[in-house]
DNA sequence: ACAGAAGCTTA
DNA sequence: GTAAGCTTCTGTT
């Protein structure tokens, strides 16, 4: 082996297990021999060996070997007898495949390497070292984290199932430490699968942070006393020996006395007949044909190889090689019945899109109006003068559809790959900027030649996007706005087809994504992103896409956006919805884009401390739960839990879920706990702790942006039926507050140094909106007087004076008030209050007697919805309920409740939208530098310099309290409570 | 690897 | 009883 040579080392054993679990089971047709993993293996190896067409890895191997584990017993068992002790036996239908895969390796003429006493990983480590020392490179075909310690400048990894390169940056991204520290990291975290102990309470996040702080494991153990957190320090001091043993266990041996040398691994051209003989015997028809073509072999002339199938565990019976479990048999039958070529799927899928013929014909009629779309007619712009000509053309036209292509759905992470423009239907172009050349080094190719330099292209584009006399049209503009903002470009004068569609059609079937809209309005099926850039394991990224295809896809997006705009924009005015779009949607786009870009500071230390506490609490509860249950089980499995509670322990079951399982919901468990059962209480507590840990303390740090060090959520403007926003990745609209434990998570949301967080929230905004809309005198009066609204309701209903009212009476009234907003039903109220349905029914009756205006409002809203198919907020936003006329009483009732709720929830959503749109200019006018960061439906969070807090609070309150005006003069005052503090918990 | 169910968090 | 999003487990591919 010499410089420039490249060794591929396939982790054969690792691949067998992954292929077995990831791929559908497959059985040889003639006798049912399980062969799924074998086929996966053969496909993968064949792909890797095909040098000239090997675009996946981007490198050509000169040397190739497949490495296997020899037996489960290795030198590590002498170090630590429990090593890999809790491994269970492999599945029955996998056993015969071990031998077949070795057989396959030989059929490929590849060295099949294994050695007694050593794991495959040690052999891989040794050969990787030998290749490096010989001046060559090595690529390990595996995704096992145990091998990541080997990654370096001349050693890479490649995950064939996800089609992903793993180099130094990927290791750092995944584990937070460079490859050379992986050993220390694994020594600390341990590995439950392999029974490597590690240090209890230390997970990957903590381990990475400790290694960052102390450098390496030895230093950490020597200076453990300096660790601030009491529990963590103690655990590390107490378990130093375990950490050292773990390190020995995870350290791969790079000096195994191997028998074969690298020269034995030189890759030979495939021996067609031998390989085909094996593939034929396996009955892999497609692969056989492919190999025959590539090696110019005549399939018919090759005889299928005769194979000796290794026996599965003899104790399981004589019919070795056949699937003997019922599940395996049925999948064998399925495979045989369907045939290999025919995809599964029944004839019933024809009806799945829910399209009725009448709707379809209407859509076709529309489509006929639209001109045909030809995706091969677009231009690909590769020089500056042409781009400048397109910019001039857009100026001339006064409008241009615009779209960006990037590397990520998250605009804060996305790198610009190109952009497209359209100036008239069918006239669209794509400007590639960051496409990579297919081939290159391990980490992907270099920049494709012939593209306009990003700086030049953006310099040409910037004046166009910032020109207020040219209308920019985009689909989901907020995304492109964030991307362009990050390149110093500010887009003004724009329309957003997604938002126009949302205003027109919120709640109708079908989403507001471009693919849906194109089909609905243009009758045109767009190219799919995944067909250009791949998806799942075949994802390669848009920057790897072929330029011709990329042009067709990207320019089509701009073309379709422009055509959609021409269809949709006029409809706004026609339906009287222009002001909803112009006041509540369009101006919010840059506001949200800024909030997303600002992000909020989250204190890692606080979260990691909480995470440790939660782990301890959950661990203790787990022990107690197992004690009480009398056995160990997966507490998180409702199925297993139900079996224990209602089966083995014989507790009375409450309700059932729709799949017929006993429900183990918190409500059921609370009831059992109230009857004095110990276990359900502990389950509820355990669930609380593990929920907080997994959803919040463990997940949030992963969202901290590497550069800004802040958390940037993403707001969806067109996701809800009512006009509310939604927040995702991460969802910052469901951060805990109800319990004191959960609340602690809010203390991790903090203001930057010298700043405070301001939280301002509307008090009872939905009830106030209801009081206005339904015009209820008592409610209006109570809000005008600032009286406790739930107490007032209770007083009216139960004739109890507000003074000295029992808390339970108020609680019931509060539940009823909420119920009204949700379109109350006796069933729901009974559930909420745990009272008989008759009693709930009686409450509702009394409520309507005292507040007849509410019943009138509900009835008229239902009637309006049935008549028109939609309901409206006080600002004219529509929410559609096309199924409110359903003949299914349950379904209809559900739609009625939703229709009653939508104007209330939606009006409140509109009000806070109006406040948000006005907020920035109001703050600027008052010369305040407060920055709006978050919205949580009825609350806004700001970050503001400490010195400006007092001046900021009244401005924020005033904007929010007056947000409905002048469009609507509410009959009820809005009240906003605002507070400032260092963290979100104290500010709220 | 992926989808659906169950469960839990918020307003 | 309204509106959302995320995690875990489980069965299927």
Automatic annotation (TrEMBL):
Domain DNA-directed DNA polymerase family A palm: 742-948
Domain 5'-3' exonuclease: 5-268
Compositionally biased spans, kind Low complexity: 323-347
Highest taxon listed in the record's lineage: Bacteria
Keywords: DNA damage, DNA repair, DNA replication, DNA-binding, DNA-directed DNA polymerase, Exonuclease, Hydrolase, Nuclease, Nucleotidyltransferase, Transferase
Domain 3'-5' exonuclease: 378-573
GO molecular function, one term: 5'-3' exonuclease activity
Pfam family name, one: DNA_pol_A
Biological process per Gene Ontology, one example term: DNA-templated DNA replication
Database matches in SUPFAM superfamilies: 5' to 3' exonuclease, C-terminal subdomain, DNA/RNA polymerases, PIN domain-like, Ribonuclease H-like
Residues in Exonuclease domain copies: 398-574
InterPro entries, per the entry: 3'-5'_exonuclease_dom, 5-3_exonucl_a-hlix_arch_N, 5-3_exonuclease, 5-3_exonuclease_C_sf, DNA-dir_DNA_pol_A_CS, DNA-dir_DNA_pol_A_palm_dom, DNA/RNA_pol_sf, DNA_polI_H3TH
Segments of this protein annotated with the region Disordered: 318-355
Catalytic activity: DNA(n) + a 2'-deoxyribonucleoside 5'-triphosphate = DNA(n+1) + diphosphate
Gene3D superfamilies registered for this protein in UniProt: 3.30.70.370, 5' to 3' exonuclease, C-terminal subdomain, 5'-nuclease, Ribonuclease H-like superfamily/Ribonuclease H, Taq DNA Polymerase, Chain T, domain 4
EC number, as in UniProt: 2.7.7.7
Assembly with partners or alone: Single-chain monomer with multiple functions.
Family designation: Belongs to the DNA polymerase type-A family.
Function (record text): In addition to polymerase activity, this DNA polymerase exhibits 3'-5' and 5'-3' exonuclease activity.
UniProt-listed PANTHER family: DNA POLYMERASE I, DNA POLYMERASE NU
Protein name per its UniProtKB record: DNA polymerase I
